């Protein structure tokens, strides 16, 4: 079944109507997606030359210019504040960047494609993706360079719980809330665009969605939500996200501790406790007593959360197995090429108690996920008893099939890559009526006709440079651990993001040239 495409003007009316239906019975709350300030605030207006100066002043300037390409367009950046809801349905506000291409080039004016960009996990409560000059906002600068400076209207939400949002927590990996928050940002941008200073830019009727890490999950959830609303998406490219969330969490609890395990786990527990209220009766049901009062500290306004020991930075689990049968996965030793990373997640200052880890692992054995450790049904466990596993199942994205093309990008040494493979297998079994592709950015270029060959070669060179730098500083493992530590947070996104644009451009070419 093919969805009818709705241009953005029509989409605005449709979403406003849908929002009004969703707000029925709560008339006191402002309409979702409506602007807090009716006239958008332009925070920056840059010519292509001025944008290049900002890029060159950044820590990754040379790499960014090489991968994103010379800017075709200037950029007007607007700061939007809009009404949305939190994880428990409470009315709140959030903010978003709206980046509009400007200039005389034909790709910078007239009818333009729109891309939604969902950012990755951020610890700073004040994070604002619109502030592309901030030293901690490489992601906003990359998104601006890859998309807005090349002629896309870019909509990039900060998410509820960040920046000016009135919500006191972040609904982390809450697929329903974050997809609706993103759609509310899209609605707000539709309201703001006609009032923007860039009057020559209009909707072309092409809508793309992408995002990295947490934003990869948000991007896929948003694609699903728009499709359910009957809104056509031209294509999406979720990047290195935890889409098969139940399987991914089971893998981590089975001793494959992520480098950022305590941070991600804290955000998940706090998010789901606010949203569902049943993850724990007392925080000590899950975490060590010394951390029990600190699960609501992230995202944070203070840099002292970790230096003061309020939360651990690396250690997720105890060195001792929770029961003798789990000794072989405390820590896990396979796959061997990533195992050195798992070891970092174990130690005396761990977050999760052994009692809780045992409870979780026993439930995973009794009610196994259909995608990990063995592929059976390919879907989450039918009836998990652990409340966290129930919440993870609720937010797992193995429950829909796209009708618009999807590309998933990541590298095989990232734990998140398992998520891409599980989604590919799930959609193949479901016979998804569109093209699904998985780009392993860490694979050798194909002998001929590989559109991502240059990006793959660049990624290999970046890994080699990281390893060489570590060896020069005394590493005795050939720099392997340094590469693993940088893999997800530093190395992947600069190559997957331009790959997403290549994929979108290919879809635009097909759309515009096939009758």
Description:
The structure is a single chain. This protein has 2 domains: 280 residues, Rossmann fold (3-Layer(aba) Sandwich), CATH 3.40.50.1820; 150 residues, no CATH class. It has 515 residues and is α/β, with parallel strands linked by helices. Helix 4 links the parallel strand 4 and strand 5. It starts with 7 loop residues before the first helix and ends with a helix. A 9-stranded mixed β-sheet has the order 1-2-3-5-4-6-7-8-9, sandwiched between helices. The chain contains 16 helices and 9 strands. Helix 2 packs across helix 3, helix 5 crosses helix 6 and helix 14 runs antiparallel to helix 16. The N terminus is likely disordered.
Q: Outline of this structure?
A:
With 515 residues, the chain is an alpha/beta fold. It is 38% helix and 14% strand.
What keywords describe this structure?
515 residues; alpha/beta; 2 domains; 9-stranded mixed sheet; 16 helices
Structural class: alpha/beta
Number of domains: 2
Sketch the topology as an H/E string, one letter per element: HEHHEEEHEHEHEHHHHHHEHEHHH
| Biggest β-sheet strands, sense, barrel | 9 strands, mixed
Number of strands: 9
Number of helical elements: 16
Q: Percentage of helical residues? A: 25-40%
What do we call the CATH homologous superfamily of the largest domain?
A: Alpha/Beta hydrolase fold, catalytic domain
Strand order of the largest sheet: 1-2-3-5-4-6-7-8-9
Alpha carbon gap, first and last residue? 18 Å
Q: Which CATH class of the largest domain?
A: Alpha Beta
Which secondary structure elements does this structure contain, and how are they paired or packed?
Blueprint: H1 8-22, E1 41-46, H2 48-57, H3 61-68, E2 74-85, E3 91-102, E4 110-118, H4 138-146, E5 153-157, H5 175-192, E6 201-212, H6 214-228, E7 235-239, H7 245-253, H8 261-276, H9 304-307, H10 339-343, H11 354-366, H12 387-394, E8 406-410, H13 417-429, E9 436-440, H14 453-472, H15 480-491, H16 493-513
């Amino acid at each position: 079944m093919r969805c009818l495409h709705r241009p953005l003007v029509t989409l605005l009316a449709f979403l406003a109507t849908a929002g009004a239906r969703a707000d029925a019975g709560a008339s006191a709350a402002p309409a979702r997606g409506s602007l807090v300030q009716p006239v958008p605030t332009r925070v920056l207006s840059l010519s292509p030359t001025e944008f290049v100066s900002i890029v060159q002043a950044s820590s990754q300037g040379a790499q960014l210019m090489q991968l994103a390409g010379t800017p075709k367009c200037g950029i007007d950046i607007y700061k939007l504040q809009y009404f949305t809801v939190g994880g428990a349905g409470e009315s709140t506000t959030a903010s978003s960047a709206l980046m509009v291409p400007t200039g005389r080039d034909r790709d910078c004016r007239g009818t333009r494609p729109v891309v939604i960009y969902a950012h990755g996990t951020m610890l700073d409560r004040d994070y604002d993706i619109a502030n592309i000059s901030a030293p901690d906002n490489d992601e906003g600068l990359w998104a601006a360079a890859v998309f807005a400076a090349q002629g896309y209207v870019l909509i990039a939400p900060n998410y509820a719980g960040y920046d000016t949002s009135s919500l006191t927590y972040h609904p982390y990996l809450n697929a329903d809330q974050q997809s609706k928050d993103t759609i509310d940002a899209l609605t707000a941008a539709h309201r703001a665009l006609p009032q923007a200073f860039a009057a020559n830019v209009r909707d072309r009727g092409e809508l793309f969605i992408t995002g990295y890490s947490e934003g990869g999950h948000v991007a896929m959830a948003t694609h699903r939500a728009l499709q359910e609303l009957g809104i056509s998406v031209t294509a999406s490219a979720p990047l290195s996200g935890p889409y098969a969330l139940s399987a991914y969490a089971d893998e981590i609890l089975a001793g494959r501790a992520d480098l950022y395990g305590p941070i991600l786990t804290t955000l998940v527990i706090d998010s789901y406790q606010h949203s569902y209220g049943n993850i724990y009766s007392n925080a000590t049901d899950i975490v060590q007593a010394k951390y029990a009062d600190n699960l609501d500290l992230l995202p944070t306004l203070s840099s002292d959360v970790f230096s003061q020991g309020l939360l651990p930075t690396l250690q997720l689990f105890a060195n001792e197995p929770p029961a003798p049968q789990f000794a072989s996965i405390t820590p896990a030793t396979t796959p061997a090429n990533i195992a050195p990373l798992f070891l970092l997640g174990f130690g005396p200052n761990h977050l999760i108690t052994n009692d809780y880890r045992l409870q979780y692992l026993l439930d995973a054995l009794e009610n196994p996920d259909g995608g990990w450790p063995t592929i059976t049904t390919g879907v989450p466990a039918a009836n998990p008893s652990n409340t966290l596993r129930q919440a993870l199942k609720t937010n797992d994205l193995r429950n829909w099939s796209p009708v618009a093309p999807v590309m998933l990008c990541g590298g095989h040494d990232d734990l998140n890559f398992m998520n891409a493979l599980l989604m590919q297998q799930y959609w193949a079994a479901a016979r998804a009526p569109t093209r699904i592709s998985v780009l392993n950015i860490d694979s050798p270029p194909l002998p001929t006709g590989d559109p991502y060959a240059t990006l793959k070669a660049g990624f290999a060179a970046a890994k080699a440079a990281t390893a060489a730098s570590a060896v020069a500083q005394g590493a005795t493992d050939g720099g392997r651990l340094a590469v693993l530590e940088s893999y997800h947070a530093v190395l992947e996104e600069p190559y997957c993001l331009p790959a997403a644009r290549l994929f979108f451009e290919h879809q635009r070419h097909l759309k515009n040239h096939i009758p």
